[in-house]
Specification:
The protein has 8 helices and 55 strands. The chain is an alpha+beta fold. It has 7 domains: about 110 residues, Cadherins (Immunoglobulin-like, Sandwich); about 100 residues, Sandwich (Immunoglobulin-like); about 100 residues, Sandwich (Immunoglobulin-like), CATH 2.60.40.60; about 100 residues, Cadherins (Immunoglobulin-like), CATH 2.60.40.60; about 110 residues, Cadherins (Immunoglobulin-like), CATH 2.60.40.60; about 110 residues, Cadherins (Immunoglobulin-like), CATH 2.60.40; about 130 residues, no CATH class. The strands form 18 sheets. A 4-stranded mixed sheet has the order 1-7-6-3. A 4-stranded mixed sheet has the order 8-14-13-10, with no helix packed on it. A hairpin with a 5-residue loop joins strand 22 and strand 23. Helix 7 runs antiparallel to helix 8. It starts with a helix and ends with a helix. Keywords: Calcium, Cell adhesion, Cell membrane, Glycoprotein, Membrane, Repeat, Signal, Transmembrane, Transmembrane helix.
């Protein structure tokens, strides 16, 4: 037992030493790859089998594997090709953070050689992260007395990338008060400071709004922004200012106590306690106690009895002081006026309370009598009204005045007048009296209805329900009563058919006569009707009625109610779409054919995208998302089937999206004999499989049928080519005769064509194949060019091409050739299988 135990320990130690030596040898010849981050799953990293000199057979047998711990989830080894590929997306920032170098190490174990190879994969950074700020908004506060040159440190932006893709600098929006100073720290990091260039003034601007932008050095450049709001704090740098340096007021001697003589007003541009003002009397005389000043409002009030005979003039000095002690002064001059004992009296007779608006100028409204019991100048009275009214006072005799109209009246502008008659005597000071007259202006229907807009434009989505509201119109009439009651109606155009014909507007649109609401009488179809124009009449209820017309445009909005229509390849009566040819020698990206589709909708509802739903050999073909072009995704392998069936889905961008699909058959072959030989081998294999075991003889009937089918097709094909050649010679002879007798030239035929449906023009590529006979050969071949698709060209731009076999403007169609060449054996093979 002890001997066996020692033997096992010795074997383990020997194996460990061997592995260590293998690891050391692999480290000395380490393989390095470099890839960018964020590559798609399945992306190529390196040809590991070639770089390590590994045998693909041993690789397929599973003798090579990745043994690195924790890293196998990111990479995978293709046992067929020996390529090292990405198995899942790699994010460098998550893997290495901001480390300048980022790499991943793998160990490749080759069991046949009992050897371990080291593989180092460097992950390169891409500019996939934009600089960003943690704060959504930066609030800074600065006093308006802050000295220029003051600095405010701003928060830093973060960028997860490294090197040139990381944060490179800052800049700030243009501002007259601030500039940006970007500093670089000892660690290379950049930070920004806001520098005050011009003194702040809160009274001019209470806040400054700036935009700070951080940018990196990637291509394209990425950036991030943050808003900066600088709040300017107030300082007591403004003294109160009176609205005027001297206030003047007059007061009658018989005014009661508390009468407001004047009001002083001061303002302070500061805010808060710096703008709180208080008023006081600074300098006064012995008689200044007759007046008092309200410290809060600045009103000058009568506190005692005024006597014109004792003093007719007062001068006061008023002071305004803010909460921080700054003050200013102003003077108040008060003149005391002598009173007139009796005021004039006004009486009105023969008053009309209403007047039609179409009354002519000079119409008498009222008779005014003015009296004053005083005598002399105090008894002489002048009577007047406000100048801007369409009335005037005309003196009849002695103290009687007639109130008459001076201009035409308009009730829509002013429906009621308050006429104030003022009577003022000539005393010193003069006394006056007023009397107001209420006069209503009666309405006349002199204004038509007016719409709120000169024209209206509405919209409604197609497939709307019948009776759906569209919108409403509004018209107003400045008149009153029945003259302002507005009704709405549609103005129907006169049709060529006469009174019995029905207008499309009347069958599509209805309007509510009272509210002006517009309704749809039917469901609209955008593809049939996109715009409807009509007129609406608004009529008032006056006598005679007045009306106004307005134009209305109704736009029908599109819905995604039409599926894409596939124009090419077109489906035949039996449901098939024909056969497309592709040479087996075609390189990746070879254009096989193109699916062309249109959508009767518009806008994004007509944006089409193409995708490959089903394929006989996944990965051999790909379809352009926007172009619909079917191209080879890789080279054609020997194991790929001759006949490839593809299903292409065409989907629009509507909500919800609608789609259509088409099946495309692609035959992979370089020449006609190759097609026949491959079909013969397929038929022979099918016959052998139907016969039973591996030693069974093929059925003689099947072989005979295949030989007959191939011979028949070959004979038909040769006859077809001979007929084409004879037809070509005949046309060439006719063209020579025509050229000798004609002086003009025939214009070329464009090599491409357009098909337009509802404004959408779909481009159809012309796919053609050239057929020719090889000189000196017993066999006929169909030669497939490497590129068989031509883009849209004008007649002048069309490239030169060899003379076709089917006439001046025709080429041998691939579907016709395939149907004549492989249709019979292919169907027979499918039936047998």
């Amino acid at each position: 037992m002890a001997a066996a135990q020692r033997l096992r320990e010795w074997k383990v130690r020997a194996l460990l030493c061997f592995v260590l030596v293998a690891v050391w040898e692999a480290a000395s010849g380490q393989i390095r790859y470099s890839i960018p981050e964020e590559m798609q799953r399945g992306s190529f990293v390196g040809n590991l089998a070639k770089d390590l000199g590994l045998d693909l057979k041993g690789l397929r047998d599973g003798g090579v594997s990745i043994v690195s711990t924790g890293m196998s989830q990111h990479f995978t080894l293709d046992s067929q090709s020996g390529h090292l590929c990405i198995s899942e997306r790699i994010d460098r920032e998550k893997l290495c953070g901001r480390s300048p170098g980022c790499s991943m190490n793998l160990k490749i174990l080759v069991e046949a050689e009992v050897k371990v190879y080291a593989v180092q994969i460097e992950i390169a950074d891409i500019n996939d992260n934009a600089p960003s700020f943690q704060e959504k908004e930066i609030i800074l506060k600065a006093s308006e007395i802050t000295a220029t040159g003051a600095r405010f440190l701003l928060p830093d932006a973060e960028d997860s990338d490294i090197g040139v893709n990381s944060l490179q600098g800052y800049h700030i929006s243009e501002n007259k008060h601030f500039s940006l100073d970007v500093q670089t720290g000892t660690d290379g990091a950049k930070y920004a400071e806001l520098v005050l260039e011009k003194a702040l003034d809160r009274e001019e601007e209470a806040a400054q709004d700036l935009t700070l932008t951080a940018t990196d050095g990637g291509d394209p450049v990425r950036s991030g922004t943050v808003q900066i709001r600088v709040i300017v704090l107030d300082a007591n740098d403004n003294a109160p200012v009176f609205s005027q340096p001297v206030y003047k007021a007059t007061v009658f001697e018989n005014v009661p106590k508390g009468y407001k003589v004047a009001k002083v007003n001061a303002t302070d541009l500061d805010e808060g306690i710096n703008a709180e003002l208080s008023y006081s009397l600074r300098k006064s005389t012995d008689k200044s106690h007759i007046f008092q000043l309200d410290s809060r409002t600045g009103e000058v009030l009568v506190a005692g009895n005024l006597d014109f005979e004792e003093s007719e003039f007062y001068e006061l000095e008023v002071q305004a002081q803010d909460g921080r002690g700054l003050s200013t002064r102003a003077k108040v001059l008060i003149a005391v006026m002598d009173v007139n004992d009796n005021s004039p009296k006004i009486s009105i007779t023969s008053l009309f309370n209403s007047l039609p608006e179409d009354s002519s100028p000079g119409t008498t409204i009222a008779l005014v009598n003015v009296q004053d019991r005083d005598s002399g100048e105090n008894g002489e009275v002048d009577c007047s009204i406000v100048d801007n009214l369409p009335f005037r006072l005309h003196k009849s005799f002695e103290d009687y005045y007639s109130l008459v109209t001076e201009a035409a009246l308009d009730r829509e502008q002013i429906s009621e007048y308050n006429v104030t008659v003022t009577a003022t005597d000539r005393g010193n000071p003069p006394l006056s009296a007023t009397r107001s007259l209420q006069l209503k202006v009666l309405d006349k229907n002199d204004n038509p209805p007016t719409f709120t807009q000169k024209s209206y434009t509405f919209s409604i989505t197609e497939n709307n329900p019948r009776g759906a509201p569209i919108s409403s119109l509004k018209a107003s009439d400045p008149d009153w009563g029945e003259n302002a009651r507005v009704t709405y109606s549609l103005l129907l155009p006169l049709l060529p058919g006469g009174e019995g014909s029905e207008s499309p507007v009347s069958s599509s649109i209805s309007i509510h006569s009272e509210s002006g609401a517009v309704y749809a009488l039917r469901s609209f179809d955008y593809e049939q009707l996109r715009e409807l124009r009509f007129q609406v009449q608004a009529q008032d209820g006056g006598s005679p009625p007045l009306s106004t017309n307005v134009s209305v445009t109704l736009w029908i909005l599109d819905q995604n109610d039409n599926s894409p229509e596939i124009l090419y390849p077109a489906s035949r009566s039996d449901g098939s779409t024909g056969v497309e040819l592709a040479p087996r020698s075609s390189e990746p990206g070879y254009l096989v054919t193109k699916v062309v589709a249109v959508d009767a909708d518009s806008g994004q509802n007509a944006w089409l995208s193409y995708q490959l739903l089903k394929a006989t050999e996944p990965g051999l073909f790909r379809v352009g998302l926007q172009s619909g072009e079917i191209r080879t995704a890789r080279s054609v392998l020997d194991k790929d089937a001759l006949k490839q069936s593809l299903v292409v889905l065409v989907k629009d961008n509507g909500q919800p999206p609608l789609s259509a699909s088409v099946s495309v058959t692609v035959v992979l072959a370089d020449s006609l004999p190759q097609i026949l030989s491959e079909l013969s081998s397929l038929s022979a294999s099918a016959a052998a499989a139907a016969g039973g075991g591996g030693g069974a003889e093929p059925q003689p009937g099947l072989t005979l049928y295949l030989v007959i089918a191939v011979a028949s097709v070959s004979g038909l094909f040769f006859s077809f080519l001979l007929g084409l050649l004879a037809l070509r010679l005949r046309r060439w002879r006719n063209s020579q005769l025509l050229e000798s007798g004609a002086s003009g030239n025939f214009s070329g035929v464009p090599v491409s064509q357009f098909v337009g449906i509802d404004g959408v023009r779909a481009f159809l590529h012309s796919y053609s194949q050239e057929a020719s006979l090889t000189a000196g050969s017993r066999k006929s071949q169909i030669l497939f060019p490497v590129v068989s698709c031509t883009n849209t060209l004008t007649a002048q731009q069309a490239p030169e091409k060899p003379a076709p076999l089917l006439g001046e403007d025709s080429y041998l169609n691939k579907d016709q050739v395939l149907n004549q060449v492989i249709n019979i054996p292919l169907k027979y093979y499918l039936i047998k299988k």
